[in-house]
Amino acid sequence: MSRGRRLLRCEAGTAAIEFAFIGLLLFTVTIGLVEAGRAFFLMNELSHAADRAARAVMLNFEIEGDDLTTLVQDDDFLTGLTPASVLVDSPMPSTADMFRNVRLSYPFTPIIAGFTLGGATLSTDRQVAR
Description:
With 130 residues, the protein is α+β, with helices and mostly antiparallel strands. It is built from three helices and three strands.
């Protein structure tokens, strides 16, 4: 048998080539799932902070926005979030309004380099009755 025919029939190394194709897909999906899980975790923490902010508004409906921001950012329960990056928006309603909205937002940046989402922002709202 000639050397060329043996080379064409040789299957040595095909497993490595197959793993290169499948492995790339597997690792990409795994990293995407880790980032999605982290986004859900941060959203849960942000939701917990919004609940605490809504409770503070229930206890004192006239609380100023700056005081509410300080209360949220000084919270020890903000695990995983950078407190200074948590934005609190809770405008004081007019006297006729019976509700006050509390909105928290947090910029999400993936840990894995190269997986940018174009500036995704996590946000949650709460509505508190007077």
